[in-house]
Amino acid sequence: MGRLEGRGIIVTGATGIAAASARRFVAEGASVAVVSRTAASCESLASELEAAGGRAHAYTADLTDVDRALEALESAISALGRVDGLFNVAGGSGRRLGDGPLHELTTEAYEATMRLNATTHVTTSAPVLRAMLSQEPDADGARGAIVNMGSVLATRPVPELFPTHAYATAKGAVAALTTTTAAYYAPHGIRVNMVAPALTISRMSARAQADAATQAFSRRKQPLAHGFVPAEDVAEAAVYLLSPESRTVTGQTITIDGGWSVLPIGE
Fold first, then answer.
1. Which terminus of the chain has fewer Cβ atoms in its 10 Å neighbourhood, N or C?
2. Distance, CA of 121 to CA of 63 (rounded, Å)
C-alpha cells in the first residue's frame, strides 16, 4: 500500500511545487483536490493525475478572495468526503506587486504581498480545520495534517539578491501561524508543520533562474542540489509530513535548501 493510501488531500496551487506534490500524493495512493486561480493549469494537472490512475478534482479560485476561496475549499472537501491533509503551496513573489526594501515599500504593495503569501494560508486552513474537527479520528487517532509553505528567506536573508521585505515578513508570519496552530490543534489529533525551501525550480523562480548572479549564488549556497532545488524534493518532504510516518511530528519546519542555511554567504 502507498504511504498516503485512501487519504484525501487538498493542494493549493497547480504548478511547480504544488504540481510535483500532487503527483507524488496520487502515486502514494491519495485522492487529490487541486485549488488554483488559473483554470487551465488546474484542470490540466487534474487530468494528468487521473490519466495516471489517480482520483483528482480541480477547483478554480483566487485564494486572496475570501469568499471564492471558501467556496472552492468547501467544494473540495465535499468531493473528497474526508480531508486528511492540506498542503498550502499557493503564493508567489511580491516583486510584481511592488515588494522591495522597506524604505521604498508602499502600504499597498506590503498588504498585497501579505495577502498572497500569508493571508491565503488562513483562508484555506480555516474551512479545512473545521472539516477535520468534525470528522472521526482515523486508526492512528488522527483527524488530519496541514503543511504550510515557508521560505529560507524568512530566517536567512540575502539582501544583495532578495531585498523583498514584505515576502520575508509574510513567510515569518506563516511560521508563527504554524507554531501556534500546531499547539492549539494537537489535542484534537491535528498536526501542523511547515516546509521552508530555498531557491527551487518553479514558475515563481523563473526570473531568478534566468539571472547569472542568482545562478552562481545557488551553486555556491545550495551545493547539495548543484544549484536550484528540484520541486520534487520539496514534494517528498510534504509526503512525509502528511503521512502516518510523521504522526508524532507537529509544529516543526523542514528546511529544504541544499545547504543554504548552514553555509556562509561567501566562499
1. C
2. 9
Taking the mean position of all CA atoms in its chain, how far away is CA 59? 17
Q: Which amino acid is residue 100, in one-letter code?
A: G
205 has which bridge partners? none
**CA angle, residues 75, 80, 85, in degrees to nearest 5:** 100
Please tell me the distance from the alpha carbon of residue 82 to that of residue 101, in angstroms, as a whole number. Answer: 43
pLDDT band with cut points at 50, 70 and 90 for residue 204: low
pLDDT above 70 as % of the chain? 97
- Which residues have a catalytic role annotated? 167
- Beta strands in the chain, from DSSP E residues, in sequence order: 8-12, 31-36, 55-60, 85-88, 144-149, 190-197, 253-256
pLDDT of residue 267: 46
Angle among Cα 148, 77, 252 to the nearest 5 degrees reads: 20
- 234 three-state secondary structure: helix
What span, in angstroms and rounded, lies between the C-alpha atoms of 198 and 196? 7
Spatial distance between the Cα atoms of 43 and 47, rounded to a whole number of angstroms = 6
Dist. CA 45–CA 24, nearest whole Å: 12
SS3 for 10-79 is EEECCCHHHHHHHHHHHHCCCEEEEEECCHHHHHHHHHHHHHCCCEEEEEECCCCCHHHHHHHHHHHHHH
Torsional class of 259: left (φ above 0), alpha (ψ -120 to 50), beta (otherwise): left
In order of 25, 75, 118, the CA distances from 138 in angstroms are 18, 22, 29
Q: Which three cell numbers mark 170?
A: 509574510
